[in-house]
Amino acid sequence: MESKPIVVDNGSYEIKFGPSDLATPYRALNALARDKFGAHYLSNQIKSIKDISSVVVRRPHELGQLTSWELESTIWDYCFFNPDEFGGFELKDTKDQHLIASETCMTIPELSKNMDQVIFEEYEFASLFKSSPAGFVPFGRAPIAISGKGDDMPTSEADFKTYKPFQLVIDSGFNCTWVVPVVKGVPYYKAIKKLDVGGRFLNGLLKETLSFRHYNVMDETILVNNIKEKCLFVSPISYFDSFKHRDDTAVEYVLPDFQTSFLGYVKDPSKPLPEDSQTVKLRDELFSIPETFFHPEIAQLLKPGIIETILESLSMLPEQLRPLMLSNIVCTGGNFNLPHFSTRLATELQRQLPTDWSCTVHSPMGPKELHNWQCMAAFANSPLYSEVRVTRDEYYEHGVDWCTKKRFGYQNWI
After folding, report:
1. Strand order in the sheet with 98-102
2. Cα(11)–Cα(24) distance, rounded to whole angstroms?
3. Which of 367, 332, 364, 382 is closest to 7 using CA atoms?
4. pTM
């Protein structure tokens, strides 16, 4: 009997992987770090760094493209052949294993070929299917439906009958945010748009803001990323409304002292601070940093925000499809873990639409960054999977160019 395929969501911040029958995937940071003493840490070993000051992080992805397979294959080896770290999960022999992988939208064809060569010639997987994460979304379920019309139609459970054929996927990850219309399971590549604001951008802007107002944290990548994940939120109504109440939502973050805490933590008002502890009082930084999704001019970016990017993508679709897409927006990616992001997106977008159109945003339960992997696992269990995958024999027969041009590359759909 054929073994369950291995599903790998190869994100630029974190790799989610495991057999398709797992409830939740294993997770590994997609990075290599060097501390100030010159010691190197691979993937999840980064979490064990005791002194996070001046840690330098290197990632296999540059500008959203996977450019360094020398580093990426080392991280994959750490994921696939490390049973002590991942609950006994280990690929003893990849020759009999089938792989489903994700790759960035609009991957440069030469870089896409590199991935095929590594998978079939180095790892020697028995078969491969890969697509952009948006291509897998129709197979998953995002159960929370958020209406842009607010009180008239409150948050409800999604109706999957209307959900399936058309989706507007908004995938907001570490490198950037993609807006991908999916028509009957196929990404409509002519209308795909990219917004250059993602988790990495928020980290950089937060570093500059904290360094200007409080302490110099330009070299504290891990600390700033932790502050972002623990404290930041999107303004529920508008930037100005949150600015009025900035003192009510203010947070005091205790910086690490490398004795009692290695990453720092949010101060509990009911507990006294330890002696000699340093804190940072965060007020409008909490919501002004994520506000760059809607107003990039805050960060001196002369580019459209997420609402304008979505409308631009819609304008390139056939007119009959536009209201269908808007009623089936799917939000996925780690940035949607920011509180109120999905709700604010729905209400802001609804204001820009004709009055008889309704905007409905579908949001997954639990951690948003796992939704892509869950959709890929659902695809692995569908009958379609065995028909569309490419086997190792087909790859050796037709060559790497055939794989990219005829099967996996975006040129196939344009």
Report:
1. 26-29, 14-19, 6-10, 98-102, 127-131, 390-391
2. 16
3. 382
4. 0.89
